[in-house]
């Protein structure tokens, strides 16, 4: 609980490269803190970008260190823009399947049922 409560003191989460945040990115997004990331070529360097895409926050995904730095400075120097991003995250989070646990569970159960049905009918999974 203390870990999550600390997010109230953050305005922006600056992700690391080449190893992106994973659970810590989810925590920040859940707590309403925008995450700025620079995606790389490996799985570990693309997780935060995937989480941002799942919350419709693609404007926080950069593809070069120069763009990452420019976006960080833009948000740091423009509190109105940062507030807009935070508001969008708050709205996106409420609609995102990433944070809708009951919907996620239903979808996962449906996929398991489909796999089981196909296996029992001897179809390719």
Can you tell me the residue ranges where pLDDT is under 50 for at least 5 consecutive residues? none
Strand content range: 5-15%
Shape: elongated
Number of domains: 1
Indicate the percent of residues in helices.
Answer: 55-70%
CATH superfamily: Glycogen Phosphorylase B
Gyration radius, in Å: 17 Å
CATH third-tier fold name:
Rossmann fold
Query: In whole angstroms, how far apart are the ends?
Result: 41 Å
What kind of sheet is the major sheet?
A: 3 strands, parallel
Strand order of the largest sheet: 1-2-3
Tell me the name of the CATH class: Alpha Beta
Based on secondary structure, the structural category is: mainly alpha
- The H-and-E topology, N to C, reads as HEHEHEHHH
Question: In terms of topology, how is this protein built?
Answer:
Elements: H1 2-5, E1 13-14, H2 23-30, E2 35-38, H3 47-54, E3 61-62, H4 65-77, H5 79-95, H6 101-120
Parallel strand pairs: 1-2, 2-3
Description of the molecule:
By secondary structure, this protein is mainly alpha-helical. It has a single domain, classed as 3-Layer(aba) Sandwich (Rossmann fold). Helix content is 56%, strand content 6%. The protein has 6 helices and 3 strands, in the order H-E-H-E-H-E-H-H-H. The longest helix is centred in the last third of the chain and has 20 residues.
């Amino acid at each position: 609980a203390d870990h999550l409560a600390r997010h109230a003191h953050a305005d922006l989460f600056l992700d690391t490269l080449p190893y992106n945040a994973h659970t810590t990115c989810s925590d920040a997004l859940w707590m309403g803190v925008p995450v700025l990331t620079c995606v790389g070529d490996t799985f570990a360097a693309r997780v935060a970008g995937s989480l941002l895409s799942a919350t419709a926050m693609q404007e926080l995904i950069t593809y070069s260190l120069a763009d990452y730095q420019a976006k960080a400075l833009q948000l740091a120097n423009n509190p109105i823009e940062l507030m807009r991003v935070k508001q969008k995250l708050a709205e996106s989070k409420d609609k995102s399947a990433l944070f809708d646990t009951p919907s996620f569970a239903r979808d996962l159960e449906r996929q398991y049922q489909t796999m089981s049905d196909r296996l029992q009918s001897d179809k390719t999974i």
